[in-house]
Amino acid sequence: MKKYLSIFLIISVCPIFSQNIKIPTDTTVVTLHTLSIKNQVISYQATTGTQPVWNEKGAPIATLFYTYYERTKTDKKKRPLIFSFNGGPGSASVWMHIAYTGPKVLNIDEEGYPIQPYGVKDNPNSILDVADIVYINPVNTGYSRMIADKEGKLPEREKFFGINADIKYLAEWMNTFLTRINRWESPKYIIGESYGGTRVMGLANELQNKQWMYLNGVIMVSPADYKLYNTSQPIYSSLNLPYFTAAAWYHNMLPSDLQKKDLLDILPEVEDYAINKLMPALAKGGFISYEEKQSVAKKMSYYSGLTETSILQNNLDVSTSFFWKDLLRNKTGQTIGRLDSRYLGLDKTEAGNSPDFNPELTSWLHSFTPAINYYIHEYLNFKTDIKYNMFGDVHPWDNRNDNTREGLRKAMAQNPYLKVLIQSGYYDGATTYFGAKYTMHQVDPSGKMKDRFTFKGYRSGHMMYLRKDDLKKANDDLREFIVASSSNGQAAKY
């Protein structure tokens, strides 16, 4: 009888205490921690919470979830502050947060593969010793959400989901955040991964010219430049050839004379061929001579590990998706990863022009999803029933009027302090390292600011920091860049 009575009470009482799931619009939770970085124990404060996005009438239309790490007992005026974004568009700021620059990293093996039990561990390579960091989740990612008005109507999606809308509201949010934490005097940086590269190129100009917030540095990690992707120009596929070489070298698919060389000894000659031979050949389209087409196909095969036949069947315009499917087709029958081509996948059939799934992304979601949920609740003490969106609904995304490259150039021209660092993995087949170099070359056609750009490459993929050796190297490169972009008391002038 007691058993049935208990069930009845639960059924009867639950509706009384149930409530709609929603995220607080404006709240903070503060926790204190310590971490050993480079054999030095540092104390830091973690503030996690939400801060509103307001419309022109001052009403909240969204709230953004963030985590702010601040080293204690330091001079905030001199200490750099870094705003960190991931990409997508539609990705939470989770990847760099708990795998790269933050105080905790995933429980993974030395090459980045999942290990159970899932979770996090101390990151002795974190840049928190030299800079404070705030990880920002755009609308519909992480716990960030749109807010309905009094009538229950959500704001128009166009206010958030597009290249220029995204840049505008995030810049305004950053202005408010900077004022709240009283960090206007600090040296300021923005870092963006993948689509975040497009985002921070645009933010550099928006922050300076609309928010009057001047930066010391812009950091692009495996940047996605939509000036390359949103075209139908076959010539841009030439930029993929050096990546093909890197991935083929990793899987031992190059001819023996290349395979026995170190990767970094091969790539410069492939880059030269891609720009000076392959790109002009592709520009000729169907009017290329038979002899030249055969010659280019032979050289592409030599540098890519693909057969001349498959290259000719694609009219020299080989897509990355075909490469992921075809490279190992006749060797192991496996596919290779899109974002990191060291990863292997198994398709239903070996036939076809593209893989069934991305093996690297499934591996990453395997380890990141449980870790970030556990970390936020247990370490940062932020409690909510809202689902943490690793990827959120941000579509349709408006890609029109992409002037982000020019925005970065303009910001650099106006600000003699501003320097740029680009970090890319050689095995990234989604935002290839040579595509990132091409973007770097195109930002300032005059070449007058090229000494303010730095490129760093790593023997891993899109998230180069998942590989233990590159986690250390990439963070050290960030430290070096922060030092190099410091004003050191010098005036901002030419």
Automatic annotation (TrEMBL):
Molecular function, one GO term: carboxypeptidase activity
Regions that span the bilayer: none
Highest classification ranks of the organism: Bacteria, Pseudomonadati, Bacteroidota, Flavobacteriia, Flavobacteriales
InterPro entries (alphabetical): AB_hydrolase_fold, Peptidase_S10, Ser_caboxypep_ser_AS
UniProt protein name: Carboxypeptidase
Endpoints of the signal sequence: none
Keyword Manganese carried by entry: no
Swiss-Prot/TrEMBL keywords: Carboxypeptidase, Glycoprotein, Hydrolase, Protease, Signal
